[in-house]
Amino acid sequence: MESVTNFSVSLIKGFIDSLRGVTVLLYLDKEINERALSRSPLTEFENTKNKQKQPKVKQESKVLTRVLQSCILNGFIFLLSILIFEYVLLPAVKYLVTVVFGHNPGVAHNVWAWMQPFLSMTFRMIWVLPLFLLSKLVNSLWFQDIADSAYRHRRGRPQFMSSVSKIIADSLFSLLVQALFLVQSMLVSMLPITYIGELLCLVHMCLLYSLYSFEYKWFNMGWELHKRLTFIETNWPYFLGFGLPLAVLTQIPQSYIISGCVFSIFFPVFILSGNEATPVIGSEYPLRLFSPVVAISNALFRCVRQGAEVVTQRNR
């Protein structure tokens, strides 16, 4: 009974903490700007003592600006353009085809049968794909900016890993683990048991989105990937609740592109939530969902390293 109670408390606490970023947005910029202003040497006494006038410096925080920019890019430009194309332009063109060939419904059906895929493919190649790639690049920069500003305000200067090569290796390994974990979530969703596959997929996505949200803070704290993953696996009830809102929101759309837009719109709030949150620790039963993909990633990196060593020896 106590285990169930602890699980429920951790799950609810994680869910509530994931929503804190909404309120943080309302005051974080103001606090950062006030702190920057209070640290500026701007008093009249100091100006007189130094016999020169020092300009007043105020470092404007851009957290709220970055969040709004992300919403505009991913919501009003990217997502809205897709919805307009799918639910306004395509139906309008279809109606035009039926009007032009109204005397012959069979011809209208055949014309629309080749026109609709052609228009959809053209739209995706000319607009959706370039904008998708651009948004991925821009979002990564904005997300990093949001995370760094919030971290410096709460905890001061980041404590990075000991060397640049270690940072690069950790980042590459992290990307591989996350990609394989996505594949793992898709595989478990295919289990031929009613609702079990979907539930396991949801659990995977909750933990993955929690990793995304907390990774900025943990990386700035100098935590290596194995420590980040172990912490999530050990305290999984909290992170299950933390990632639940974003996982549900992104699973509602049927389109991968629209799901990505929804993720990019709401994710900055979860970055702020993760920066503010204090996870509930002490779960009795670790959930080793990341362990299989970590083992596969280690094997792949080992093969690549051995292959590189063999090529190096042959070149000598």
TrEMBL record:
Q: How does it sit in the membrane?
A: Multi-pass membrane protein
**Similarity comment text for this entry:** Belongs to the EI24 family.
PANTHER family, per the entry: ETOPOSIDE-INDUCED PROTEIN 2.4 HOMOLOG, P53 INDUCED PROTEIN
Chain ranges passing through the membrane: 63-85, 125-143, 164-187, 193-212, 256-273
Q: Which organism is it from?
A: Chrysodeixis includens (Soybean looper)
What keywords were assigned to this record? Answer: Membrane, Transmembrane, Transmembrane helix
Picking any one GO biological process from the record gives: macroautophagy
- The protein here is known as Etoposide-induced protein 2.4
> Which Gene Ontology terms of cellular component type are present?
endoplasmic reticulum; membrane
Q: Which InterPro entries match?
A: CysZ/EI24
Coiled coil regions in record: none
Its localization reads: Membrane
